[in-house]
Amino acid sequence: MNYNSIIEGDCIDVFHDSISEGSVDLIFADPPYNLSGSSLNLKNNTTGGAFYKVNEDWDVFSEADYLTFTDNWINGCKGALKDNGSLYISCTHHNIGEIIVVGKKMGLQLKNILTWYKVNAMPNITKRTYTHSSEFVLWFVKGKKWTFNYDEVKKFNPNKTKSGDNKQMRDFLDFIELPIVQGKERLRGDNGRALHPTQKPEKLLELIILASSNPGDLVLDPFFGTGTTGYVAQKMNRKWIGIEKDKKYIAMAKTRISELV
Ligand SMILES: C[S@@+](CC[C@H](N)C(=O)[O-])C[C@H]1O[C@@H](n2cnc3c(N)ncnc32)[C@H](O)[C@@H]1O
């Protein structure tokens, strides 16, 4: 396998054809959430700001097809993981049910559900529900001796005691407050609009990679998008592989990561 590179294609096929069984230490997967196609479409907004409705062809499935898709790609992840590897999957209320059912059915153990509270979440335009301000990251492990770098994660804790020491882990819960990607971190086109609707915060990946891998380990992302996982893994001295089916996102990710090399 070629490390630090992006494989173009459908991740289900790529897992089958190109990724060695039991070779990956950590997978972060940010799959389609199957939430596109609702009537609330802000795609023509010109702000280029943080509020960007996802409405993409790759994110539309029937309920039955979505369950089959989830089954197939999680099966690919399970095969690719080392015996004690970790699989982190981002989701919302739209798809958390399917992912937990499939993960447990495959014998993966769910260790935590991280809540990402989006401090600049999209405003509640319809006023017909509670404001959607969080996403979740499910952490599954395959075996019994999974990696969890407790002391490193503790150092990541932004809260300090009065003497400047890191506080206990109870001050760094399974809850993380981060804005939706904005400012210089957001990849934008010449018109100022975000180039990808679901670019994930680098800080979120920093935490996950720090907690569940060590320098030199192999990190894989089957839904690579703008390459956030590869970008952060490269910075943190991990090997990485990205899988992405859209050529334009592959080009974006390559440009982004090439700035580091
Ligand atoms: C939710 S986005 C991931 C965004 C990424 N985490 C980032 O920070 O930019 C999902 C990505 O997966 C890609 N994709 C969707 N279905 C795929 C599949 N079956 N195989 C590979 N890539 C896929 C889409 O083109 C999209 O870029």
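^ S-adenosylmethionine complex. The radius of gyration is 18 Å. The helical segments are 11-18, 63-80, 96-105, 150-156, 202-212, 228-235, 247-258.
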